[in-house]
Amino acid sequence: MSGVVIGLEIHCQLDTRTKLFCPCSTDYRDDGPNTHVCPVCLGLPGTMPAVNRTAVEYALRVAKAFHCEVPVECEFSRKNYFYPDLPKGYQITQYDRPLALGGYIEIEGDGGLEKRVRLTRIHIEEDPGRLVHKGGGDRARYSLVDYNRSGVPLIEIVTDPDLSSPKEARRLIEHLRATLEYLDVYDPEKEGSLRVDANVSIAGHERVEIKNISSYRGVEKALTFEITRQRSLIRRGVAVERETRHFVEERGTTRASRTKVEEHDYRYFPEPDLPPLRVADRAAAIELPELPAARRERFRVQYGLSPNHARTLTGNPGLAEFFETVAGDDPVLAATWVADTLLGELNYRGRPVGSVGPARFSALLALLKSGRITDRSGVEVLRIVLDGDEHPDAVVERLGLAVTGDDTVSAAIAEVIAEFPQAVADYRAGRGNAINYLAGQVMKKTRGQADPRELGRRLADALAEDGPCT
């Protein structure tokens, strides 16, 4: 989008067992409010924080994966503001001495070329609590506070304003999310584990911050609405105000929240209860796993996959591992069925790829490769396998889906030619599409078991004035 400037602040909950500064469990989502709290995460007087080493290691993995510069030391600071979900009256975060500086994330830009989005910084901080608003309409009658989330470790990844459209922002979030999964520092199944604040402006006008976007689809929707809103204001000669807005997901709109707060309003100062952390040596010792970009290139070269299939299959580590398990000696066939068919069926059912047994899926691929079943029958078999516990071979046997022999197909062709003389006449009169209708009738008679790749040729031979029906 011409003239659009976008920068993102991405907050990711690190998947540690305990909170950032206390031993309270982070596995709170199925439990009652305020059941995973202690004097430290409630900010009671006299308590002292102690840093979770695993959280620091996870944050350093992310910094290293995105090519950041890790300083010798980093330091925690207090960010002072008053809000009901912040029990201490300040948040422990990092300010002028963060965990990592610089770095970049590479995505596909709107022009189809690779685009490098620069990172400003990555820092660690504690999550605030959660407000639960009660009442109908736009205004709650009252609000409740749940501190179970208070103190859960977060990393905040801040980009430079290098993004030019909502689609680019969505691609960046998708790539970031996949990388975090490969690094094994993040659980995408946990509600609220990834939240985004987006800064957006039209070149030459004030920027607006959109808070608390909770999905990569939400990022695209929120930015699309906000860009349209700002352009409408500019066309009408109304100044765009610098403000903070909230994304209303159910409506796909943003609404005004408050005027934009500046950094100096938070009165940052070093956290006196935590000494600086020496992190450079720890970062140097970290060995990274194969990340999405490297795996995508390996799939393309090693298995001969198309760029689109390689990109889809490396979208999350579970899917990539499933593909490699079932690839066998025909990885292109496996990639086509995993990326184009299996994923669609799983998304329709709202199920993860881990719910599919690779042995049964490999058996389905073997049936397809041998020509024992058609592609159409393969989809039917897959659906039955996903919805039950039958083996593909048993489904084919029970439903009689094996490809029909030549004699049966020849008989079906003869019957169709006899039963649909008008379609036969249309074909012989030069209306080529009539053969598709006749082929559909043959497939009905054979219950989809005729090989569609051969059926067209055999029908054309049979429809020739003096042609054979074989």
Structure description:
Helix 2 packs antiparallel against helix 3 (216-235). Mean pLDDT is 90; it is low at 466-470. This protein is of the alpha+beta class. It has helices spanning 53-65, 166-182, 216-235, 280-284, 292-303, 307-313, 317-326, 331-349, 358-370, 375-387, 392-399, 406-419, 421-428, 434-445, 452-463, and strands spanning 4-13, 73-74, 77-80, 90-93, 100-101, 104-108, 114-126, 130-134, 142-146, 153-159, 194-202, 208-213, 243-248, 253-259, 269-270, 277-278. The strands form four sheets. Strands 1, 5, 6, 7, 10, 11, 12, 13 and 14 form a nine-stranded mixed beta sheet that branches. A three-stranded antiparallel beta sheet has the order 4-3-15, with no helix packed on it. Strands 2-16 form a two-stranded antiparallel ribbon. The chain folds into three domains: 4-267, no CATH class; 292-399, no CATH class; 406-463, Arc Repressor Mutant, subunit A. A hairpin with a 5-residue loop joins strand 6 and strand 7 (114-126).
